[in-house]
Model the fold of this input.
Amino acid sequence: MILVFLLGWGSFSEAAAPKDELQTAVDLYRQGQYFKAARFAFSATDGNPRIQASAYSWIALSLMKSGLHHSATYFFIRTLQVGTPVEIRRVLTGTEELLFAVGPDLLRKYLVRHTKAQDYDLKNLSAFYYAQGKDAILRGDLKRATALLGDVASGSSLYPYALQLLATAYALSGRTAEALRAYERCEAKAGSLLSGLDSPRTYHSDGWIKQRRADSEDLTARCIAGRARVLYEQGQFEESDRAYDLIAKDTFVWTDILFEAGWASFAMKNYNRTLGRLVSYKSPGLEFVFNPEVDVLRAQTYMMLCLYDDANGAINDFNAQYANVGIRIKKYVEGNQHDPLAFYESGKRALSDRLHSDNPFHRVLNRFVRSPYFQGLVQSERDLGSERARIRQFDSFHKGVSHAQNEGFPGFLNVVLNWRRKTIRLLGGFFVKNSLLDYHGKILSDFDKMSYIKLEMLSRSKERLAFNRTPLAERGRGNVHPQRRDHQYYWSFNGEFWNDEIGDYVFGLESACGSKNGV
Done:
């Protein structure tokens, strides 16, 4: 709808264009005068629909070469929508460069809808495989997804992302050995996302480069976590536990998967290790984490040790912390369900707030607005301002051309960037909305789990009374020496949390099962 609206802005074109303006644009492009080439190609679109698609393709390529990638996206998309195979194949020669600059998913649906494998040259073919492969996963066609994603070239800038998707498709298909290998390759190749950052292409902002480095670190951590999950599903709990330990503590992923590592310890019946991992969330460094499953696992672990008072304490903590949050999320989503921009603005406010916010709603939003995807959208919105400044700079070099706001080619680019900003905000808004809906559903599910734990504890208490079991010695706190691996050391806890220690604690509790506190 936005794209059709933009096409009506013929009044923004330059003064009457001669028939050879498109050829002039091509000549200028080949001479390296890219912004001037884009100007002439834009003039050629006015009143001559027969060459419109060809002009769009040259505008898109010229703007890319000028470092104006967000501006180029509109003309790239329009070429795909209205072009013949000749124009489509021409503009697709810039696909990898464009995706490298604006992100791998912005243009995915257009590549799926309007292109075929034979439209691409060898350098850019991986973009087609990536787009089609991710689309296949979303449609549940895992066989097709693995075939397509497996064809992404190792030299492609999309290769690390494709490996993560490929591993996910393998895991969902039950092909665990192949999933593990793909996750290992993903971990090894995530650093290649940094390739080219030191090149002389100065149009990349400092914020964009910082985000790219964060993407690389995040992808490394997520691929390790993916491998750990596959090992867990295979019942290889010890190997899963060791894999979780490889995730760097300074990544945001680590704060979210610490409880997953707790489940690996739980599966090995190493309940003291589980509790040690979960107590890390009590540290000042992790108190911003707002994950209801932490309390669910804590309650379940205490129940397995028959420490029912402690289990009840975890349940009470959960109820106190999440009951009102669930109500607030439901009210917020229902009140803004037709306004995706409100969700985006809420996400931005949470992102700009300090990590250890006192606002519980911001703490909820932290789980997803600090993901690379949402932060990448916010960074793209910031980069639009840099593009506007560069357009003004390019435009100032052209004498004898109107520089009035909203006139001519620069004026049209201003409209394009406004459209681009709206698409970014809509994408971010729907992401936050869907994430909140998923989070609300998770809270409801966790309330059900807590109810089950309470019923199970009541059942165990009834069994103890019915069989009148003989009480054993009182259980003790801290009187079981924790097991450790060869590279680990034993230190007693002195009541202080240290950043290099969180995640490594182990409780020393005896089970009360069989005592007067248990069954």
Summary: The CA atoms of residues 156 and 438 lie 33 Å apart.
